[in-house]
Write a structure and sequence with these properties.
The protein is an alpha/beta fold and 239 residues long. The chain has a domain of 162 residues: Rossmann fold, CATH 3.40.50. The chain is built from 9 helices and 11 strands. α7 links the parallel β8 and β9. The longest helix has 16 residues.
Length: 239
Protein backbone atom coordinates (compact mmCIF):
# COMPACT_ATOMS: atom_id res chain seq x y z
CA UNK A 1 0.00 0.00 0.00
CA UNK A 2 1.38 3.38 -1.04
CA UNK A 3 2.18 5.97 1.61
CA UNK A 4 0.07 9.13 1.64
CA UNK A 5 2.68 11.84 1.23
CA UNK A 6 0.23 14.76 1.19
CA UNK A 7 -3.31 14.83 2.58
CA UNK A 8 -5.72 17.76 2.56
CA UNK A 9 -8.84 17.51 4.72
CA UNK A 10 -11.87 19.82 4.74
CA UNK A 11 -9.71 22.75 3.67
CA UNK A 12 -11.14 26.24 3.43
CA UNK A 13 -9.05 29.03 1.91
CA UNK A 14 -9.34 32.28 0.02
CA UNK A 15 -8.32 35.87 -0.40
CA UNK A 16 -9.49 38.27 2.29
CA UNK A 17 -13.25 37.87 2.60
CA UNK A 18 -13.46 35.86 -0.63
CA UNK A 19 -13.70 32.17 0.23
CA UNK A 20 -12.48 30.07 -2.71
CA UNK A 21 -11.99 26.59 -1.26
CA UNK A 22 -15.06 25.32 0.62
CA UNK A 23 -13.96 22.10 2.25
CA UNK A 24 -11.55 20.41 -0.17
CA UNK A 25 -10.42 16.83 0.44
CA UNK A 26 -7.64 15.21 -1.58
CA UNK A 27 -4.43 13.25 -1.15
CA UNK A 28 -1.27 12.42 -3.07
CA UNK A 29 0.47 9.09 -2.63
CA UNK A 30 4.24 8.83 -2.75
CA UNK A 31 5.42 8.31 -6.34
CA UNK A 32 2.23 9.53 -8.00
CA UNK A 33 1.46 12.17 -10.57
CA UNK A 34 -1.86 13.70 -9.50
CA UNK A 35 -3.67 16.28 -11.60
CA UNK A 36 -6.24 18.90 -10.63
CA UNK A 37 -8.48 20.05 -13.47
CA UNK A 38 -11.62 22.15 -13.68
CA UNK A 39 -13.03 25.40 -15.05
CA UNK A 40 -11.46 28.81 -14.49
CA UNK A 41 -12.20 30.13 -11.02
CA UNK A 42 -12.78 26.68 -9.52
CA UNK A 43 -9.93 27.09 -7.02
CA UNK A 44 -7.27 24.91 -8.64
CA UNK A 45 -4.33 27.26 -8.14
CA UNK A 46 -5.62 28.18 -4.69
CA UNK A 47 -5.10 24.57 -3.61
CA UNK A 48 -1.39 24.83 -4.45
CA UNK A 49 -1.06 28.28 -2.89
CA UNK A 50 -2.74 26.99 0.27
CA UNK A 51 -0.20 24.18 0.54
CA UNK A 52 2.60 26.76 0.18
CA UNK A 53 0.95 29.11 2.71
CA UNK A 54 0.47 31.87 0.14
CA UNK A 55 -3.23 32.48 0.87
CA UNK A 56 -5.39 32.81 3.94
CA UNK A 57 -6.74 29.55 5.33
CA UNK A 58 -9.77 28.74 7.45
CA UNK A 59 -10.66 25.36 8.89
CA UNK A 60 -9.19 22.08 7.72
CA UNK A 61 -5.73 20.52 7.69
CA UNK A 62 -2.79 20.01 5.36
CA UNK A 63 -0.62 17.05 6.32
CA UNK A 64 2.70 16.42 4.61
CA UNK A 65 4.89 13.45 5.49
CA UNK A 66 2.76 12.84 8.62
CA UNK A 67 3.08 16.43 9.84
CA UNK A 68 0.45 19.19 9.83
CA UNK A 69 2.04 22.03 7.85
CA UNK A 70 -0.98 24.30 7.67
CA UNK A 71 0.46 26.92 10.01
CA UNK A 72 4.03 26.86 8.70
CA UNK A 73 5.55 29.77 6.79
CA UNK A 74 6.38 29.30 3.11
CA UNK A 75 10.14 28.97 3.66
CA UNK A 76 9.51 26.31 6.31
CA UNK A 77 7.33 24.36 3.88
CA UNK A 78 10.06 24.50 1.24
CA UNK A 79 12.58 23.31 3.80
CA UNK A 80 10.27 20.42 4.72
CA UNK A 81 10.44 19.14 1.14
CA UNK A 82 7.82 20.88 -1.05
CA UNK A 83 8.77 23.01 -4.07
CA UNK A 84 6.52 24.82 -6.50
CA UNK A 85 6.75 25.78 -10.16
CA UNK A 86 4.52 28.87 -10.30
CA UNK A 87 2.18 29.78 -13.12
CA UNK A 88 3.54 31.96 -15.90
CA UNK A 89 7.19 30.87 -16.24
CA UNK A 90 8.42 33.17 -13.47
CA UNK A 91 12.18 33.53 -13.84
CA UNK A 92 14.63 36.30 -13.00
CA UNK A 93 14.78 37.92 -16.42
CA UNK A 94 17.99 39.90 -15.86
CA UNK A 95 19.91 36.89 -14.50
CA UNK A 96 21.58 34.16 -16.52
CA UNK A 97 20.23 30.61 -16.57
CA UNK A 98 22.96 29.54 -14.14
CA UNK A 99 22.25 32.44 -11.79
CA UNK A 100 18.56 31.51 -11.81
CA UNK A 101 19.45 27.95 -10.81
CA UNK A 102 21.74 29.23 -8.07
CA UNK A 103 18.76 31.13 -6.66
CA UNK A 104 16.96 27.79 -6.34
CA UNK A 105 19.62 26.61 -3.90
CA UNK A 106 19.17 29.45 -1.43
CA UNK A 107 18.60 27.04 1.48
CA UNK A 108 21.77 25.07 0.72
CA UNK A 109 24.79 26.30 2.67
CA UNK A 110 27.50 24.35 0.82
CA UNK A 111 28.56 25.95 -2.48
CA UNK A 112 29.91 22.65 -3.80
CA UNK A 113 26.53 21.00 -3.26
CA UNK A 114 24.78 23.80 -5.16
CA UNK A 115 27.22 23.32 -8.06
CA UNK A 116 26.60 19.58 -8.01
CA UNK A 117 22.82 20.04 -8.08
CA UNK A 118 23.11 22.50 -10.98
CA UNK A 119 25.25 20.01 -12.89
CA UNK A 120 22.59 17.37 -12.27
CA UNK A 121 19.99 19.72 -13.74
CA UNK A 122 22.15 20.29 -16.81
CA UNK A 123 22.33 16.53 -17.25
CA UNK A 124 18.58 16.22 -16.77
CA UNK A 125 17.68 19.16 -19.06
CA UNK A 126 20.63 19.41 -21.50
CA UNK A 127 19.37 22.54 -23.30
CA UNK A 128 20.05 24.54 -20.13
CA UNK A 129 23.76 23.71 -20.23
CA UNK A 130 24.15 25.31 -23.65
CA UNK A 131 22.18 28.36 -22.48
CA UNK A 132 23.73 28.65 -19.01
CA UNK A 133 25.44 32.02 -19.64
CA UNK A 134 22.47 33.60 -21.41
CA UNK A 135 20.11 35.95 -19.65
CA UNK A 136 16.70 34.40 -19.07
CA UNK A 137 15.03 37.24 -20.99
CA UNK A 138 16.58 35.92 -24.22
CA UNK A 139 15.12 32.42 -23.85
CA UNK A 140 12.00 31.08 -25.53
CA UNK A 141 8.88 30.49 -23.44
CA UNK A 142 9.56 26.77 -23.30
CA UNK A 143 13.16 27.29 -22.25
CA UNK A 144 12.09 29.71 -19.51
CA UNK A 145 9.66 27.08 -18.26
CA UNK A 146 12.49 24.55 -18.11
CA UNK A 147 14.57 27.03 -16.08
CA UNK A 148 11.67 27.45 -13.66
CA UNK A 149 11.30 23.68 -13.36
CA UNK A 150 15.03 23.09 -12.88
CA UNK A 151 15.26 25.84 -10.26
CA UNK A 152 12.46 24.21 -8.26
CA UNK A 153 14.30 20.88 -8.33
CA UNK A 154 17.64 22.14 -6.98
CA UNK A 155 16.51 21.43 -3.39
CA UNK A 156 15.46 17.89 -4.34
CA UNK A 157 11.90 18.17 -2.98
CA UNK A 158 9.84 15.15 -1.96
CA UNK A 159 6.88 16.62 -3.86
CA UNK A 160 6.75 19.15 -6.68
CA UNK A 161 3.71 21.38 -7.16
CA UNK A 162 3.19 22.63 -10.72
CA UNK A 163 0.73 25.40 -11.58
CA UNK A 164 -0.38 25.35 -15.24
CA UNK A 165 2.97 24.13 -16.67
CA UNK A 166 1.70 24.28 -20.28
CA UNK A 167 0.20 27.77 -20.10
CA UNK A 168 1.03 29.90 -23.14
CA UNK A 169 3.34 27.36 -24.78
CA UNK A 170 3.36 26.13 -28.38
CA UNK A 171 1.94 22.60 -28.98
CA UNK A 172 5.37 21.04 -29.62
CA UNK A 173 6.77 22.62 -26.48
CA UNK A 174 3.77 21.45 -24.45
CA UNK A 175 4.54 17.87 -25.46
CA UNK A 176 8.17 18.31 -24.35
CA UNK A 177 7.10 19.78 -21.01
CA UNK A 178 4.75 16.89 -20.27
CA UNK A 179 7.42 14.35 -21.20
CA UNK A 180 9.75 16.07 -18.75
CA UNK A 181 7.09 15.99 -16.03
CA UNK A 182 6.86 12.23 -16.41
CA UNK A 183 10.66 11.99 -16.24
CA UNK A 184 10.74 14.01 -13.00
CA UNK A 185 8.67 11.25 -11.42
CA UNK A 186 10.21 8.27 -13.20
CA UNK A 187 13.89 9.28 -13.23
CA UNK A 188 14.20 11.57 -10.21
CA UNK A 189 11.60 9.83 -8.04
CA UNK A 190 9.77 13.04 -7.17
CA UNK A 191 6.02 12.99 -6.52
CA UNK A 192 3.99 15.57 -8.47
CA UNK A 193 0.76 17.48 -7.82
CA UNK A 194 -0.16 19.44 -10.93
CA UNK A 195 -2.84 21.99 -11.80
CA UNK A 196 -3.46 21.98 -15.53
CA UNK A 197 -6.01 23.64 -17.82
CA UNK A 198 -5.12 21.25 -20.64
CA UNK A 199 -7.21 18.38 -19.32
CA UNK A 200 -6.34 16.06 -22.20
CA UNK A 201 -2.61 16.24 -21.50
CA UNK A 202 -3.04 16.10 -17.74
CA UNK A 203 -5.14 12.95 -17.93
CA UNK A 204 -2.65 11.33 -20.31
CA UNK A 205 0.16 11.33 -17.76
CA UNK A 206 -1.49 11.37 -14.33
CA UNK A 207 -2.15 8.39 -12.07
CA UNK A 208 -5.16 10.05 -10.49
CA UNK A 209 -7.15 13.21 -11.02
CA UNK A 210 -9.40 15.56 -9.08
CA UNK A 211 -12.01 17.72 -10.80
CA UNK A 212 -12.68 20.96 -8.94
CA UNK A 213 -15.89 22.96 -9.29
CA UNK A 214 -16.73 26.09 -7.29
CA UNK A 215 -14.19 25.33 -4.58
CA UNK A 216 -15.21 21.71 -4.07
CA UNK A 217 -14.02 18.35 -5.40
CA UNK A 218 -16.74 17.32 -7.85
CA UNK A 219 -15.09 14.15 -9.15
CA UNK A 220 -12.00 12.07 -8.48
CA UNK A 221 -10.56 9.03 -10.12
CA UNK A 222 -7.87 7.68 -12.43
CA UNK A 223 -6.93 8.82 -15.91
CA UNK A 224 -10.00 6.84 -17.06
CA UNK A 225 -12.00 9.95 -16.13
CA UNK A 226 -11.62 10.83 -19.82
CA UNK A 227 -14.50 8.39 -20.40
CA UNK A 228 -16.78 10.03 -17.83
CA UNK A 229 -19.52 11.87 -19.78
CA UNK A 230 -19.49 14.79 -17.33
CA UNK A 231 -15.73 15.31 -17.77
CA UNK A 232 -15.98 14.89 -21.54
CA UNK A 233 -18.74 17.46 -21.82
CA UNK A 234 -17.30 20.06 -19.46
CA UNK A 235 -13.54 19.81 -19.88
CA UNK A 236 -12.69 17.79 -22.98
CA UNK A 237 -14.74 19.60 -25.57
CA UNK A 238 -17.54 17.04 -25.65
CA UNK A 239 -15.60 14.21 -27.28
Amino acid sequence: MKKKLLEIKDLEAGYGKLQVLKGVNMHVNEGEIVAIIGPNGAGKSTVLKSIMSMVGKGRGSINFNNKNIKKLETHEIVKAGISMVPQGRIVFQSLTVEENLEMGGYLIKENNLIKQRIKEMYDFIPILRSKRKQRASFLSGGQQQMVSVARSLILRPKILLMDEPSLGLAPKTIQEVFEKIREIRDKLGITILMVEQNAHKALEICDRCYVLESGNVALEGTSKLTKDPRVKKLYLGGY
